[in-house]
């Protein structure tokens, strides 16, 4: 009895809980995920195969009709471009945030967090105001004499990429900032003392140590971009359908729930496969 008491005390002192206690604390979250996510997804996937008898017709339709594969490919391509742009634009911001202190750091953090707290719908409509034919961009260019007639900026693939990058960039900046913040500054100073320049020190020390943040941010941005609905639907229009807007169209307009479930199943498999490849690539990069 005394040994068990000592062991429990040691676990409590070390901040560890027993497995039953951990499961008890996690049970509400597990129930919430099961009822709000796993059960609806499982029901949707079940309906794509059993309608009511087992059939692969919905999945064969995706392969047989090229338009659906084209939309899926466009969605993956758009998500990849958005992820790359978010990394290129967000990494310098995260690096500056990690170097600053005091009011300057609070100001930069506010510039990152305030858009994150703003509704996605509001930010998407803001891009419509900016990019429409009589919007701010076209009006400014015409008043400066750069163009003679409005450019088609809205309802294009470029508009979707720009708007999605703006909406999802905080999800890239914050994990990278957290990773950069955890790097001891002594490592950079040691590299500089050994003769490395600023750029060499960044490539050899800072960038490799920030890979976990890059991985976390890239995964979040990529997965969110694959399933993004509001911004592509508003900014891209019907000419630039993504897989999420196609699923929404099948459920709300055509009421074809089995085919929507098949599309969701394919998207789920593609997402898990690409995440697995990216994770293996990151491990290879760490080894290199």
TrEMBL record:
Main localization (coarse): membrane
CDD domains cross-referenced by the UniProt entry: TM_PBP2 (cd06261)
Keyword Transferase: no
Domain of life the protein comes from: Bacteria
Membrane topology type: Multi-pass membrane protein
Full protein name: ABC-type spermidine/putrescine transport system permease subunit I
BP-aspect Gene Ontology terms: transmembrane transport
Compartment annotation: Cell membrane
Residue spans crossing the bilayer: 25-46, 67-94, 100-118, 153-174, 255-278
UniProt similarity note: Belongs to the binding-protein-dependent transport system permease family. CysTW subfamily.
Keyword Transmembrane helix: yes
GO cellular component entries: plasma membrane
Pfam families: BPD_transp_1
PANTHER family in alphabetical order: ABC TRANSPORTER PERMEASE PROTEIN (PTHR42929:SF5), INNER MEMBRANE ABC TRANSPORTER PERMEASE PROTEIN YDCU-RELATED-RELATED (PTHR42929)
């Amino acid at each position: 009895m005394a040994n068990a008491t000592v062991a429990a005390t040691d676990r409590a002192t070390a901040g560890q809980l027993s497995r039953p206690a951990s499961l008890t604390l996690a049970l509400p979250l597990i129930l919430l995920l099961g009822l709000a996510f796993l059960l609806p997804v499982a029901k949707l996937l079940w309906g794509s195969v059993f309608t009511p008898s087992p059939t692969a017709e919905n999945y064969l339709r995706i392969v047989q009709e090229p338009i659906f594969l084209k939309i899926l490919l466009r969605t993956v391509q758009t998500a990849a471009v958005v992820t790359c742009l978010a990394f290129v634009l967000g990494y310098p911001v995260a690096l500056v945030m990690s170097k600053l202190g005091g009011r300057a750091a609070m100001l930069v953090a506010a510039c990152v967090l305030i858009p994150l707290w703003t509704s996605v719908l509001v930010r998407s409509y803001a891009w419509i105001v900016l990019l429409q034919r009589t919007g701010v961009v076209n009006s400014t260019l015409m008043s400066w004499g750069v163009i003679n007639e409005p450019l088609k900026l809205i309802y294009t693939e470029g508009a979707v990429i720009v708007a999605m990058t703006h909406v999802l960039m905080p999800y890239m900046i914050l994990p990278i900032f957290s990773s950069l913040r955890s790097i001891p500054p002594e490592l950079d100073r040691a590299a500089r003392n050994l003769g490395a320049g600023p750029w060499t020190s960044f490539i050899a020390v800072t960038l490799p140590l920030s890979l976990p943040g890059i991985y976390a941010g890239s995964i979040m941005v990529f997965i969110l971009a694959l399933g993004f609905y509001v911004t592509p639907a508003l900014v891209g229009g019907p000419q630039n359908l993504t897989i999420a807007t196609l699923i929404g169209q099948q459920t709300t307009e055509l009421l074809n729930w089995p085919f929507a479930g098949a599309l969701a199943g394919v998207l789920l498999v593609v997402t898990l496969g690409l995440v697995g490849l990216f994770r293996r690539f990151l491990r290879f990069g760490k080894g290199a």
